[in-house]
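Severity: low
Component: inverse-folding endpoint
Summary: output formatting inconsistent between runs
Steps to reproduce: submit the following C-alpha cells with default settings.
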C-alpha cells in the first residue's frame, strides 16, 4: 500500500506557503490561484512543479512522468504574464496524462481550469480592485 499523498499542486522551491509571519506578503498570486483552481477541479490529481532553466525543449513549460508522479517544469525566462497560462497548460497534462498530448481530454481539462480561473479572478477583482501605483524607482 502506498502512503497517502497530499492532493495538491506543490511548488518544490520558493513555496507560497511560506512562514505565517512572513514580512513580505504576496497580496495576489496568480500562480497560487491556478494551483488552487486545479486542485479544486481535480482533487485526485497531483504534480510537483519546478521553476527551472529550459531543459533544451525550447518551451516555456514541460510535463514529464517520474516514478509515477507528474513533474512540471516552468522555464525561469517565461514572461511573468504568461506563467499562469503555461502552468494551467502543464497542469492539464498532469491531470489527463501526458500520453493524451493536446487531444480532447487535455482541451477539456485546460478549458475547465481556464474558465474556473477566470471566474475566480473576476470575483477577486470585484473584492480587491487593483490600483496602479507609480513606482518609487525603476529598479535600475
Ligand atoms: Zn502541452
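Observed output (run 2 of 3):
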Amino acid at each position: 500500500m502506498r502512503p497517502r499523498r497530499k492532493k495538491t499542486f506543490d511548488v518544490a522551491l520558493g513555496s507560497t506557503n511560506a512562514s505565517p509571519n512572513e514580512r513580505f506578503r504576496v497580496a495576489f498570486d496568480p500562480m497560487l490561484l491556478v494551483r488552487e483552481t486545479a486542485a479544486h477541479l481535480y482533487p485526485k490529481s497531483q504534480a510537483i512543479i519546478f521553476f527551472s532553466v529550459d531543459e533544451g525543449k525550447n518551451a516555456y513549460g514541460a510535463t514529464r512522468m517520474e516514478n509515477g508522479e507528474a513533474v512540471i517544469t516552468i522555464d525561469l525566462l517565461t514572461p511573468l504574464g504568461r506563467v499562469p497560462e503555461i502552468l494551467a497548460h502543464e497542469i492539464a497534462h498532469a491531470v489527463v496524462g501526458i500520453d493524451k498530448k493536446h487531444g480532447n481530454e487535455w482541451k477539456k481539462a485546460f478549458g475547465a481550469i481556464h474558465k474556473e480561473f477566470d471566474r475566480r479572478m473576476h470575483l477577486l477583482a470585484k473584492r480587491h480592485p487593483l490600483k496602479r501605483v507609480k513606482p518609487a524607482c525603476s529598479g535600475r
